[in-house]
Design goal:
The complex is a heterodimer of chains A (about 475) and B (about 325). Chain A has 14 helices and 21 strands. Chain A is of the alpha+beta class. Classes of the chains: A alpha+beta (about 475), B mainly alpha (about 325).
């Protein structure tokens, strides 16, 4: 694996432009001050209650995501490039979904193999022929991006279902503004704080045709035990809308209502942070206690908008991901601005034999897995693990894709021994409404706090950083 | 507002209030048992504490004897007692988390900090000094929660529902003290009144933080029927039944005005309030103090059910 590109020092050890002021400041600041502020930040997070749940840990049902106080910085130019790429990417996801659930031209043209779509559990036959307002399926997307050198950004993964993390983007900024005003004074950092306004405008713009001019929007959560519950309540609060659970809603005569202290009230747009499977026990999992019976019938009747739409999982499926460059070309006649990580599909014989020969160099992912589980990181895995994975792949090759271990870029990060480079990724949030696409400058930077580690997932011990996009 | 949100706010306030009440009961009982009481008296103050807390049934399912250690643990820390102080604060915080969007930052902070601090106190029974500190802390936490709600929350239905929860609980608590100790307050009791009774009377007043208030209001030595008067009928005492219902009516009326609709809860609350206003303490003794209190507890429960029916489900 090549040595990683550091976003502050580049490859030649100098200081790259966007980091100039930060580098000077890091040189001046007393390490103890950094440590004191780090502890202050942790205290603030705990008091505000910004926690997430880790499944499978009885003791730590509420944990803090470690926060690193050194910001990650992108220049205005870098951001403009990313922004264009993101808009193109999300536009494509929406076109793909519309096509898959109607004419299926992309399948007929043989660009994407049918057997990756129809038997896929995230493909929802219920959506066939379903009209959604303004043909928008993915209203909120989180596109995971990694960087390998000064010029090259890759899309690691599209999140078109219920991407989370935006509350951290906003809270990280709040806390940085509180703790490091002097550092902001040395930069011109583009603001992210209007994200909730942008989100609300997006959600209102996709209200069903029959809704009033001021549609009722709600955020729907699976409840307090969900790992992202803090975010759900945070967003409802910032949007100024109700945070509902399944039991708060009911469907009558094809319309969705919420139970309020003043009786039933009509709901037009549901920003749902609950998986398709649990939305409606009459359509999906009958054992779901989190959903609303009859919700899908109201949806089919066009009386309520779900954001994101049902069935978007087929667009961010890891098996489909590897076809994204072709998909972009097919719908837009353009080359993808943001590249894919080179990907081998084990379903194809020549790819499979390459993967099996190079397991110790590759990252192998299960196409339906998420959160860094069910994944083989070849270079750090021991022989037994590799052998076990080899058997798994041989048994069902189509369930796996493989990618080279990327030398993810690093950013200066506070660690026990002082300030040291750690690997990062970036999740910008892309909002698509009737009128336009909105992206607040920045996103959530996740950082692998362990030396050498490439896994940034919070469920695997990753942390977060504030992401600064410079104004010029 | 969502019915579930209103329900959570109502219970959030109730649980914080209950935690504080339990802390005061424990404190008072501790004090009573420290007094050189006549050994021949059969009353076990710890048994009384359980009854006042309304937890005697649950306690005896797991314990044989109401010892200081067992009762203190049960009422303060036990994870098995759904109404222990610890559980009240846990549930309160759980409810708060579920309705974060309806709370101000300060109110959330008050309950969340309490919950975080709660971890410092172990599950095991503490030494007397530690317990005293704990009970103090519970009361301070409740004050902080109440104060931050009072000072920062918008005066809308979220606030009114939480106040209704608080006054339901407070009225119930005061009524329970009277229910368990009513025999000490009967006028016939006066002639047997000795130092032992004085301690008991003072304890009753302390458990509603009213010992000083009593002297200010009556400018008289402690007389049992005046204690009953203070706790039941006196509007000036924030924990009297009358004062609780004055507030209850006020908050329910605000909701009715905001929603443009009066319902059974408003009517019921007003009738209870009117009864308290038009009754003199002599009438209560004539009709039976115990009966009066039992009726009140039942009526207060009926109002809770009516509020739930109308708004919370």
């Amino acid at each position: 694996m090549a040595s990683a590109f550091d976003e502050m020092t580049g490859t030649d050890g100098g200081v790259r432009d966007p980091y100039e002021a930060l580098s000077t400041w890091l040189g001046e600041v007393n390490p103890e001050v950094l440590e004191v502020r780090r502890r202050e930040a942790e205290l603030l997070f705990r008091r505000i209650g910004i926690t997430f749940a880790v499944y499978g840990e009885a003791e730590a049902t509420e944990r803090l995501i470690p926060f690193d106080v050194i910001p990650r910085i992108l220049s205005a130019k870098e951001w403009r490039f990313l922004e264009q790429g993101l808009i193109q990417r999300v536009k494509t996801l929406n076109l793909f979904l519309k096509d898959i659930y109607s004419r299926r031209e992309i399948l007929r043209a043989g660009i994407v193999p049918e057997d990756l779509v129809f038997p896929n559990p995230v493909f929802r036959p219920e959506m066939n022929g379903q009209k959604v307002p303004h043909d928008i399926y993915v209203h909120v997307a989180g596109i995971d991006i990694v960087r390998v050198d000064a010029e090259t950004f890759y899309v690691l993964e599209d999140n078109a279902r219920t991407p989370s993390g935006v509350s951290y983007m906003l809270e990280n900024r709040e806390i940085m503004l509180r703790l490091f005003p002097e550092l902001f004074a040395r930069h011109r950092v583009a603001s992210v704080e209007d994200y909730p306004d942008q989100l609300l405008a997006t959600l209102k713009s996709v209200a069903p045709a029959g809704a009033s001019s001021d549609p009722t929007v709600v955020v729907m959560t699976p409840g307090v035990y969900n790992s992202a519950y803090y975010e759900h309540s945070f967003l409802a609060d910032k949007l100024g809308v109700e945070l509902v659970e399944g039991n708060d809603l009911f469907v009558k005569a094809g319309l969705v209502y919420m139970r309020t202290t003043q009786g039933p009230r009509r709901v037009d747009v549901i920003y749902r942070r609950i998986d398709d499977d649990f939305l409606d026990p009459l359509t999906f999992r009958p054992d779901s206690a989190l959903g609303v019976a009859g919700l899908m019938s109201a949806y089919h009747a066009g009386n309520v908008t779900l954001a994101n739409a049902v069935g978007t999982g087929i667009a961010d499926d890891k098996a489909i991901y590897s076809y994204m460059p072709e998909i972009v070309r097919f719908y837009l006649g353009e080359e993808a601005i943001l590249k894919n990580v080179p990907t081998w599909r084990c379903r194809e014989a020549d790819h499979l034999s390459y993967v099996l020969d190079h397991l110790d160099e590759l990252v192998v992912k299960e196409v339906h897995g998420s959160g860094g589980y069910g994944m083989l990181i070849g270079p750090t895995a021991d022989k037994a693990t590799i052998a076990a994975f080899r058997d798994k792949i041989r048994r069902t090759p189509r369930n796996f894709i493989a990618q080279p271990t990327l030398a993810l870029s690093t950013c200066p990060t506070c660690v026990e021994s002082g300030v040291a480079p750690r690997h990062v990724d970036l999740r910008p949030f892309v909002l698509t409404g009737r009128d336009r696409t909105r992206i607040v400058p920045g996103g959530l930077t996740r950082v692998a706090l362990k030396e050498g580690s490439l896994v940034v997932n919070s469920s695997q011990g990753g942390g977060t950083k504030d992401t600064w996009v410079l104004d010029r | 507002m969502l019915s579930r949100t209103a329900d959570n706010l109502y219970w959030l306030a109730r649980y914080v209030e209950r935690a504080e009440y339990l802390a005061r009961i424990l404190e008072t009982t501790q004090r009573l048992t420290a007094m050189p009481l006549d050994q021949s008296r059969s009353t076990n103050e710890w048994e009384t504490a359980l009854a006042t807390a309304g937890c005697a049934g649950a306690f005896y399912q797991a314990h044989d004897k109401a010892t200081e250690e067992a009762v203190t643990h049960f009422l303060a820390f036990s994870p098995d007692n759904p109404s222990s102080i610890r559980n009240c604060l846990e549930v309160a915080r759980h409810n708060a988390r579920a309705v974060r969007t309806a709370l101000t930052m300060e109110t959330w902070d008050a309950i969340n900090t309490t919950w975080l601090d709660l971890k410092r106190f172990g599950h095991k029974s503490a030494s007397r000094e530690e317990l005293t500190r704990f009970l103090q802390w519970v009361q301070e936490s409740s004050l902080r929660f109440d104060g931050s709600a009072y000072r920062t929350m918008l005066r809308n239905d979220a606030y009114w529902f939480s106040r209704i929860g608080l006054y339901s609980e407070r009225a119930d608590n005061t009524a329970r003290i009277l229910d368990v100790k009513y025999h000490l307050l009967l006028p016939a009791h006066e002639h047997v009144g000795g130092p032992v009774d004085y301690f008991q009377w003072a304890a009753i007043l302390r458990s509603v933080s009213a010992l000083t208030a009593y002297h200010w209001v009556y400018r008289d030595s402690v007389k049992p029927w005046l204690i009953a008067d203070l706790l039941i009928l006196n509007d000036q005492l924030p924990r009297s039944l009358s004062s609780c219902y004055e507030n209850m009516v006020q908050n329910l009326d605000r909701i009715a005005a905001a929603y443009g609709r009066q319902g059974p809860p408003q009517r019921l609350a007003r009738s209870i309030r009117t009864k308290l206003q038009n009754t003199r303490i002599d009438d209560i003794f004539q009709g039976g103090l115990h009966e009066f209190i039992s009726d009140f507890i039942a009526e207060n429960n009926r109002l809770g059910a009516a509020v739930t029916q109308q708004y919370l489900i």
